[in-house]
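REQUEST FORM: STRUCTURE PREDICTION
Request ID: SP-0412
Submitted by: Lab K.M.
Chain count: 1
Length (residues): 124
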Amino acid sequence: DAHLVESGGGSVQAGGSLTLSCTGTTFRLAASRMSWYRQPKGDECELVASVTSDAKTTYLDSVKGRFIIAQDNAENKSYLQMNNLKPEDTAKYFCAADGVVTGYFCSRADSGTWGQGTQVTVSS
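STATUS: Completed
RESULT:
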């Protein structure tokens, strides 16, 4: 089975920074479209950022200029650097390889390989 393991979540005050990491334990990430999704409590899953195998990036409008998605193929890791965090960024964050979500919950994705999620809490 393919696996992704996330780390780096936690609690931070507004304006602070966190970097989430996602490690592929059984397959190479370089050939995949890597994405970070989040699920705020009581709200639906949303795509935060993604990077294709040819390094094209996309971002949710609300995080543009604050978040950066990056990939280290030598380390087989994907990163989400989050700067100037806001309380509305509070959510459970998931990394996904070739992930597709059409429903409400990140945990019930349509396809792809997903990590277990890591909680990010931003206090005002």
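NOTES: The first strand starts at residue 4 and ends at 7.
Reviewed by: T.R.
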